[in-house]
Amino acid sequence: MKYSTACLLLVTLSACGGSSTEQSQPSDSVNENSNPTTPDESPQSTDTTTNPNEETNQPEVTPPNEENETEESPPTDEETDVTQVPVPDSPPFDGTIFLDPDIITASDPSAFQNISSLGTAERLMFDRREGWITTTPYLFLATYDDGLSIEFQVNPEFSRENAETEARRYAELIGQLPTLLRKDVDTSWIHRGVNLWGGGNRNILIHTGQAALYLQDGIAEETLIHEASHTSLDADYAAAPGWLEAQQNDPTFISTYARDNPTREDIAESFLPYVALRYRRDRISDDLAATFEATMPNRFHFFDSIVRDMYPLE
Predict the structure, then answer these.
(1) Total number of domains in the chain
(2) Could you tell me the pTM of the whole model?
(3) Residues 128, 198: Cα–Cα separation, whole Å
């Protein structure tokens, strides 16, 4: 990616970070502090030596908002030119956010429109360094030109000026995600710390120390696709019959991280390759595209059946 560099809760949190029900920790995607091709078995607690994704409660999230549904369909298999590779019998990758830093780049459009201060107010937030905390963050409302909005809640450990800078930075980055992945993102928590990002709870969790590593590796946007897939897709589709059938019929999982966490991570690990092949085919190699197709053709067909509202990627 053209930056210098840039997953995960599964339970609904109320829209502006107020009271919550059955909150659980955000799920982590993979550990970007280790080998950038190997996913971390991230911890359930703030101890980063264990897997943070061991929670088993499924989120109770309302069905996806279909108000912005369009009749446009993603490109079909016939419209993607991929070479042939042997059908894999084991996951070809460890984690997918590392595969290509140019799936989304700094020069790609963002739906971000404006951001304004809402002052400060008490909010319940998750901080990987401490767990659930009640604090009084700086609040900013970001609006997007597809009608969506997100309340950014910035830890008061930042100065007022720096808090606005951080909120604007991530509001613009999140604006590069398609409407489909932003539709259930009501809030975003921003803290200091080299701690994994997270998705779920109608939220995206950001730690700015980790952001520096993601930006350095060029995968901030790719990581956000993973995290927002948790927030906006998992609750509706991770246990859907069509998705479970696709899992059963495909030869294997796209990554060992998805294989080891099939309910929590398979959609998030698979959706980024889907975006790459269907919407950014010219940015990935023929071999990578062929591996995607050979590994999960049925998952791709499932995504084709539910994907809509991919602005501003379209």
Answers:
(1) 1
(2) 0.76
(3) 9
